[in-house]
TrEMBL record:
InterPro entries: DNA_methylase_N6_adenine_CS, N5-glutamine_MTase, SAM-dependent_MTases_sf, Small_mtfrase_dom. Keywords: Methyltransferase, S-adenosyl-L-methionine, Transferase. Residues 204-277 form the Methyltransferase small domain. GO terms for biological process: methylation. One of its GO terms (molecular function) is nucleic acid binding. PANTHER family: HEMK METHYLTRANSFERASE, MTRF1L RELEASE FACTOR GLUTAMINE METHYLTRANSFERASE. It holds the Pfam family MTS. The keyword S-adenosyl-L-methionine applies. The keyword Magnesium does not apply. This is Methylase. It comes from the Bacteria.
Length: 379
């Protein structure tokens, strides 16, 4: 057995074990029972809520239907709870209650487990071929393992996005996001970068490049050399593939770095995670920035990496302000403390479906949200 976490269970009177895989970083369930097509949804739901994991030995498609049934029961329970729970006292409380409900839902649905062979085949009736999707997300595999069905379905969905890509009008092309790398489905921030006048076309740094979408856009706008950084290996691989596909890799150097590369540039661009909250899984670090660490790190180091008369472009939503998680005064104080001044700010309203969904528990904040490009310079 490798150094990975191990999950154990009893089957046919014997104690068995396998490698445990969880992209969310959750530990293996302590209690595991064997389940198959004879298990009804009510019993499965009760067991999952109690923390008992169900290692599936039945038909794969029946497992999918069972997962859907579990999700319906969670939604039904949530609907009943809303009738008796008081309205959140503040947007901040609404946010934390929403995150708490999301986390509980994820834990419950993650209790339905699947076995995987060493080659990513699923040894169940009517199981699909997921080898390509698993290889793309997990890399090579050398031994059997157990993972949740919910994670697998998310992985399959991400694989389809990777194959299809996301159309980016400003690029006149597509970006193909990897599993675990934030997809640029919200295009308003890209339009801000496309429309803001460039201070120089000689050199730019793209901090936290992710899929490489902003590096590709800067290249398309005529910046001769771009250094794109990220800490995550998946993001680095994803960015290189997208830049190659778009014919921009000759202008862009993709390197692994914590925020800034060495040297200075006349333009430094950063689109950090917008919400200062604790992620529930490593994948959520693209959305949630605990204590605004990346944002504050970017601001603190920006002046030292700008050439004279250079500009730092900070792309940031004010959703956190509407949720009461960060104030505008705090942001301006961090900018000032970093020896920076604001040259200007361009705003755009989001046009994603959640902004107009009145059933969303965070609708009040989402409907007021504005995404901005802050043009910063050293004092």
């Amino acid at each position: 057995m490798s150094d990975y976490p191990v999950i154990s269970w009893t089957e046919d009177g014997e104690t068995r074990s396998a490698r445990w895989h969880s992209e969310s970083g959750s530990p293996p369930p302590k209690k595991v029972i064997i389940a198959d097509d004879k298990l009804n949804a009510d019993t499965a739901y009760r067991l999952a809520c109690e923390g008992t994991a169900l290692l599936w030995r039945g038909d794969f498609q029946n497992a999918r239907q069972l997962l859907q049934a579990l999700a319906r029961r969670i939604e039904h329970k949530s609907g009943k709870s809303k009738k008796v729970v008081k309205v959140a006292a503040s947007p901040t409380e609404a946010f934390h209650l929403h995150r708490q409900a999301q986390s509980q839902r994820a834990r419950t649905l993650a209790m339905l487990l699947l076995p995987f062979d060493a080659d990513y085949r699923i040894p169940l009736r009517r199981a699909p071929d997921v080898q390509q999707a698993c290889s793309g997300a997990y890399g090579s595999s050398t031994e059997p393992f157990v993972a949740s069905l919910r994670e697998l379905l998310g992985l399959i969905g991400a694989h389809e996005w990777r194959k299809k890509g996301v159309e980016i009008p400003a690029l006149e092309g597509r970006i193909h996001p990897y599993y675990g790398v934030f997809s640029p489905v919200r295009g308003e921030y890209i339009n801000l970068v496309a429309d803001t006048p460039l201070p120089s076309t000689a050199l730019a740094f793209d901090i936290g490049t992710g899929t490489g979408v902003l590096a590709a856009l800067l290249a398309k706008r005529g910046v001769k050399r771009i250094v794109a950084t990220d800490q995550d290996q998946r993001a680095l691989n994803c960015a290189r593939e997208n830049l190659t596909r778009l014919g921009a890799l000759k202008q862009v150097e993709v390197i692994q770095a914590d925020l800034f590369p060495e040297g200075r540039a006349p333009l430094v661009v950063c689109n950090p995670p917008w919400v200062p909250a604790r992620p529930n899984s490593p994948i959520e670090y693209a959305v949630y920035d605990p204590e605004s660490r990346m944002l504050r790190g970017f601001l603190a180091g920006l002046a030292a990496h700008l050439e004279p008369k250079g500009e730092g472009w900070l792309i940031l939503s004010d959703l956190a302000e509407h949720l009461g998680l960060r104030s505008r005064e705090e942001l301006l104080a961090w900018i000032d403390a970093a020896g920076l001044k604001v040259l200007g700010k361009s705003d755009i309203r989001p046009h994603h479906p959640r902004a107009s969904d009145t059933q969303d528990p965070l609708h009040a904040a989402r409907s007021a949200e504005v995404t901005s490009l802050w043009r910063l310079a050293a004092k």
